[in-house]
Design brief:
nine-stranded mixed beta sheet; 375 residues; alpha+beta; eight-stranded mixed beta sheet
């Protein structure tokens, strides 16, 4: 995809598609260099402030080599509902969506209380090599599973076969504010973050006895993107999302953070966009020590590892808006199953898609998944 057209001008115009203008590559370097000064943080900002039709993160996708093994692992660890499992082949719509002729795959959809987790085994990946994503990236390094500290997700994942990355093999209390953190790997080397929440922190994410009574003691909370240039990538998503990040931070000289991420003397820059009114976020990390390398090449949308989707209410409008601004999609929106979808890549070649529910009342839509159980 083009590495231009969606940087500083989008901050100024806040992405009005009818007024969007292209920029040339000669100006891109200057925009990248000055992007930091143009990302204004608003602590109250969230997805409801968007100038687009994006309504939230619908799913986390995981391209896997062995669906049976990975599905068994995630079902044991999370107890998420298995919504569907199907094999797709000889499907021209699937060919168009993924940009690959005669594509064949098997997909399993798990439903968390607030998001979908989709595991897909593509036939052409049967000989692909699996590897462990380092915490420093680059790429979409992980998603996050949250749980009450009284019923910790960490133990469930480890018992299901997760391999701890965090030193000591136990989650770490980073700051004494009611959250413990730990990183671990699934059987194919995909990293996840596990957060155990207590007290007031639980209430802030919308959890109380009602969730427990519904059997919902684990949920998902984030897309995590690790990049060599955090300001550049956050500026890109500022344009895509059409609202401001709510927080930026630097973390250094913290031995507990070192323990969590598995690096001595770690130093990271971070930033967050709030994707609902509680705990769902897109977060960004740039490791200064050890330094996050720049990603080279281009990821295929079916490559092993993570992807995610932004659900919209008007996919044709968003497809055209982003296309006008230089984003290149694999295809025009394609209807496949319960969603219209279109895949693309960000500036670091991280895979994401636009997604619109065919049925506005779908139980798999953000409209339903992000409803506070207390309302």
């Amino acid at each position: 995809m083009k590495r231009v057209n969606i940087l500083l001008p989008l901050v100024a115009t806040l992405l009005c598609s009818c007024q969007a203008t292209a920029i040339n590559e000669e100006t891109t370097a200057a925009m990248d260099a000055n992007s930091a000064a143009n990302i204004e943080v608003n602590p109250a900002a969230n997805i409801k402030d968007t100038s687009t039709t994006i309504i939230g993160v619908n799913h986390i996708g995981l391209s896997v080599k062995d669906l049976d093994k990975e599905l068994a692992f995630y079902r044991e660890a999370t107890n998420f509902e298995l919504v569907s499992r199907e094999t797709v082949s000889h499907n021209k719509d699937a060919d168009r969506l993924f940009g690959r002729q005669d594509i064949a795959y098997e997909i399993a959809v798990l439903k968390a209380p607030n998001m979908l987790l989709e595991l897909t085994e593509f036939e052409h990946n049967k000989d692909a090599e699996i590897s462990r994503m380092p915490a420093k990236g680059p790429g979409m390094t992980h998603t996050c599973f949250q749980s009450p500290s009284s019923d910790p997700g960490w133990a469930k994942f480890v018992n299901a076969g997760a391999t701890p990355l965090t030193w000591g093999g136990e989650p770490v209390d980073l700051g004494g504010y009611g959250v413990t953190y730990g990183y671990a790997y699934d059987p194919e080397g995909n990293m996840m973050e596990l957060e155990q929440l207590d007290g007031n922190v639980l209430s802030r994410v919308g959890y109380d006895k009602t969730w427990k009574d519904l059997g919902e003691v684990m949920w998902m909370s984030q897309v995590a993107l690790v990049t060599h240039d955090i300001d550049r990538l956050m500026n890109f998503y500022h344009g895509v999302l059409g609202f401001q990040p709510y927080r930026k931070a630097e973390l250094r000289d913290n031995v507990r953070a070192d323990q969590i991420v598995g690096y001595e003397n770690s130093q990271v820059l971070a930033g967050w966009f709030r994707m609902n009114e509680t705990s769902k976020v897109i977060e960004f990390w740039q490791y200064v020590n050890p330094a996050t390398p720049e990603f080279e090449g281009e990821r295929d949308v079916t490559d092993l590892g993570y992807s995610f989707s932004l659900e919209v209410t008007d996919i044709q409008k968003e497809y055209q808006r982003l296309t006008d601004l230089g984003v290149e999609f694999v295809s025009e929106p394609v209807r496949l199953g319960e969603f219209w979808q279109a895949y693309t890549r960000d500036l670091d070649s991280n895979i994401f898609s636009l997604r619109q529910a065919v049925d506005v009342e779908s139980e798999l839509s953000v409209r339903k998944l992000d409803v506070n159980k207390l309302l």
